[in-house]
Design brief:
Helix content is 36%, strand content 17%. With 363 residues, it is α/β, with parallel strands linked by helices. The structure holds NADPH dihydro-nicotinamide-adenine-dinucleotide phosphate and guanosine-5'-diphosphate-rhamnose.
Length: 363
C-alpha cells in the first residue's frame, strides 16, 4: 500500500517562517523535508523542537544540507523527496544587508527561485509539485498607490527587492509557460518572537527587555518615520498553505490592512514594561526619553538609514479574504505583547554582567 501522506519541501526551514510553516504542516500530517545551510555553528534553534532522530523509523521531519545557489544539490533533493509542495522561503532576507551583498542576494533570492522551478521542470514534476514563492511587499518600494494590492505596480528600492522582483516574474512566467502550479504570496511584514534579531521589531523588543532588566542602556535606531503593515508570522504561514490548496495557482497579498510608524512600535513596546516614551528633537537629533525619569533611552543612528527607503506600506488583503478565506487573527497589540514577554524570558537567562548578544554586526 502506498504512503498517502503529503510531502513538502521547505527551503529556509531554519528561518522564522520556516519554523511556523513546519509546525503547521506537521500538524496536518505532512512529511516535511527542509533545506539547511551548512554552518560552523548550530543554526537550527527555531526547529530544534521538531527534530526527530534520523535513526527512528519513518521520520516526519528531515533536514538536508544545501543552498539556493547550488543547482545540482537542489535538483537532487527534489528528485529524492518527490515533494507535492515546495515552499521557497529561503533568502538573504535583510533589506539593508542587501545593499552590501547585492550580487549574492540576486543569486540566492532571484536565481535561486529559478533553480527550483527548473528542478520541477527538468524532473518532469510539473503536474505533481506545487510551488509557493515568498514574494514581498518590498516589491512596491516607492509606492505607486495606497493601499497596495495585487494590481499595484512594483517599484523596487533595494537589491533585495530587485532580486525578489525577478523571482516574482519568473514564477508567473513558469506558471504561464509550463502550467506549473506556482503562486506568489506577496506578504507584508510579519513578525514573532522568532523574528531575526536585526529586523526592527525584534531589535526593539529585545532592547526593551534588556533595558528593563538593566542589561542595556540605550537603543539606537534608523528611520523612525517609516510605516509598516505588521502582522504575526503564524497567521501568514497559514495563508501560504491555503494558496497551494487552491485548484488554480495565483498571486495573493497577505496583510493586516493597518499601518504604523516605527516610532509607534517603539512606544507600544516600552509601554509593555510600564515606560512611556517622550520624544524630543527632530530628524537625526530626535531622542526618546522615559517620561517619568527623564532617562535617555533611544537615539537615532544614521548608520541604519538605507540608501533608498520604503516609506509607507499598507496592504489590501481583500483578494485573499474572498478567495482563500484568509484573514489575520493577531492584532498588533497582542503581537507586541507576545514579543516583549518572550524577550523578557530570553533576557532573564543572560548573566547580569554580560551584554546581550547582538551578533556583533547590527543592522
Ligand atoms: P529569515 O531571514 O528568518 O529566514 C531565511 C531563511 O533562508 C533561513 O532559513 C536562512 O538560513 C535561509 N537562507 C538564506 N540564504 C540561503 C541560501 N543561500 N540557501 C539556502 N537557504 C538560505 O526570513 P523569514 O522567515 O522572515 O522570511 C521567509 C521568506 O519570506 C524570505 O524569503 C523573505 O525574504 C520573505 N518575506 C519575509 C517577510 C517577513 O516579514 N518576514 C515578508 C515578505 C517576504 P539560515 O538560518 O542558515 O540563515
Ligand atoms: P523591512 O524590515 O526592511 O521592512 O523588511 P526591517 O524590520 O528591517 O525594517 C522596517 C523599517 O524599520 C526601519 N528601521 C530599522 N530597521 C532595522 N532593521 N534596524 C533599525 O535599526 C531600524 N531603524 C529603523 C527600516 O528603515 C524600515 O523602514 C522586512 C524583511 O523581512 C524582508 O525580508 C521582507 O520582504 C519585508 O519585511 C516585507
Amino acid at each position: 500500500m502506498g504512503d498517502s501522506r503529503k510531502v513538502a519541501f521547505i527551503t529556509g526551514v531554519t528561518g522564522q517562517d520556516g519554523a511556523y510553516l513546519s509546525e503547521l504542516l506537521l500538524s496536518k500530517g505532512y512529511v516535511v523535508h527542509g533545506l539547511k545551510r551548512r554552518s560552523s555553528s548550530f543554526n537550527t534553534a527555531r526547529v530544534e523542537h521538531l527534530y526527530e532522530d534520523p535513526h527512528v523509523e519513518d521520520p516526519r521531519f528531515i533536514l538536508h544540507y544545501g543552498d539556493l545557489t547550488d543547482a545540482t544539490n537542489l535538483i537532487r533533493i527534489v528528485q529524492e523527496t518527490q515533494p507535492d509542495e515546495i515552499y521557497n522561503l529561503a533568502a538573504q532576507s535583510h533589506v539593508q544587508v542587501s545593499f552590501e551583498t547585492a550580487e549574492y542576494t540576486a543569486n540566492a533570492d532571484g536565481i535561486g527561485t529559478l533553480r527550483l522551478l527548473e528542478a520541477i521542470r527538468l524532473l518532469g514534476l510539473k503536474d505533481k509539485t506545487r510551488f509557493y514563492q515568498a514574494s514581498t511587499s518590498e516589491l512596491y518600494g516607492k509606492v505607486q498607490a495606497v493601499p497596495q494590492d495585487e494590481t499595484t505596480p512594483f517599484y523596487p528600492r533595494s537589491p533585495y527587492a530587485a532580486a525578489k522582483l525577478y523571482a516574482y516574474w519568473i514564477v508567473v512566467n513558469y506558471r504561464e509557460a509550463y502550467g506549473i502550479h506556482a503562486s506568489n504570496g506577496i506578504l507584508f511584514n510579519h513578525e514573532s518572537p522568532r523574528r531575526g534579531e536585526t529586523f526592527v521589531t525584534r531589535k526593539i523588543t529585545r532592547a526593551v527587555a534588556a533595558i528593563k532588566l538593566g542589561l542595556q542602556d540605550r537603543l539606537y535606531l534608523g528611520n523612525l518615520d517609516a510605516k509598516r503593515d505588521w502582522g504575526h508570522a503564524r497567521d501568514y504561514v497559514r495563508g501560504m498553505w491555503m494558496m497551494l490548496q487552491q485548484d488554480e495557482p495565483d498571486d495573493y497579498v497577505l496583510a493586516t490592512g493597518e499601518t504604523h510608524l516605527v516610532r509607534s512600535f517603539v512606544e507600544m513596546a516600552f509601554r509593555e514594561v510600564g515606560v512611556e516614551i517622550e520624544w524630543r528633537g527632530e530628524g537625526v537629533e530626535e531622542k526618546g526619553y522615559d517620561a517619568a525619569s527623564g532617562r535617555l533611552l533611544i537615539e537615532v543612528d544614521p548608520r541604519y538609514f538605507r540608501p533608498t527607503e520604503v516609506d509607507l506600506l499598507i496592504g489590501n488583503p481583500a483578494k485573499a479574504r474572498e478567495r482563500l478565506g484568509w484573514q489575520h487573527e493577531t492584532s498588533l497589540q497582542s503581537l507586541v505583547s507576545e514579543m516583549v514577554r518572550e524577550d523578557l524570558k530570553v533576557m532573564a537567562e543572560v548573566e547580569p554582567r554580560d551584554k546581550p548578544n547582538m551578533g556583533l554586526v547590527h543592522a
